[in-house]
Amino acid sequence: MVKLAVLVSGGGTNLQAIIDAIANDKLNACISVVISDKKDAFALKRAEKSNIPTYHIPKGKGLSDKIADKIKGVDYIVLAGFLSILSTNFCQQWNKKMINIHPSLLPKYGGKGMYGMKVHNAVVANKEQESGATVHWVTETIDGGDIIVQGRCKLDSKDTPDAVAEKVHKIEHKILTEALQKIITSKETDIKQTK
Ligand code: GRF
């Protein structure tokens, strides 16, 4: 079975979406470990409630190496609202084995400094008529890796940044599961073909 490590910094609703998808047999995977760079991230509580091992590794020097130590034997890494930047070396080692969820229709509203409410504020300020979320492979270029799945939603001219965030969050939960299904299915097909 595919083993996942999930890296988080916040509330962990995307982590919860993965936990639920596994519990409901929608994903043939297990979460081996959840790592947070924030000690008080609610995501850690969600993991503990589901008996998943957790680690707090604070942001700072050696973060990527310390994470690498905790994820031995893992097949894929999911960045589910993880706010620290991982080293180039780490990104290269996990090339096509690490995904990220971003709350916009990349390549729009991506890159350094574009995260969380900053994205939704910019979307509203620019009077966009649609927004959405993207799951993509992680490379050393922030938000720049190949797109795996995108989901979109229509925006109303009255939508506040909070309203946009709520619409986008719902899409994130759906497409994160879809992206993982896609990755896991293609890995299973590869394994069958090499047998
Ligand atoms: C999401 O909006 C995700 O796109 C971004 O960080 C947020 C995390 O939300 N990278 P949650 O902690 O999963 O609720």
What does this structure look like?
- By secondary structure, the chain is an alpha/beta fold.
- 39% of the residues lie in helices and 22% in strands.
- A 7-stranded mixed beta sheet has the order 3-2-1-4-5-6-7, covered by helices on one side.
- Helix 4 links the parallel strand 4 and strand 5.
- The longest helix has 34 residues.
- 5-O-phosphono-beta-D-ribofuranosylamine (GRF) binds next to helix 1 and strand 5.
Salient structural properties:
195 residues, alpha/beta, 6 helices
Secondary-structure blueprint of this entry?
Blueprint: E1 2-8, H1 13-23, E2 29-36, H2 42-49, E3 54-56, H3 63-70, E4 76-79, H4 88-93, E5 98-102, H5 117-125, E6 130-137, E7 147-154, H6 161-194
Parallel strand pairs: 1-2, 1-4, 2-3, 4-5
Antiparallel strand pairs: 5-6, 6-7
Helix pairs in contact: 1-6, 5-6
The structure holds 5-O-phosphono-beta-D-ribofuranosylamine.
Largest sheet: 7 strands, mixed
The general outline is globular
Bound small molecules, which ones?
Answer: 5-O-phosphono-beta-D-ribofuranosylamine
Structural class of the helices, strands and pairings? alpha/beta
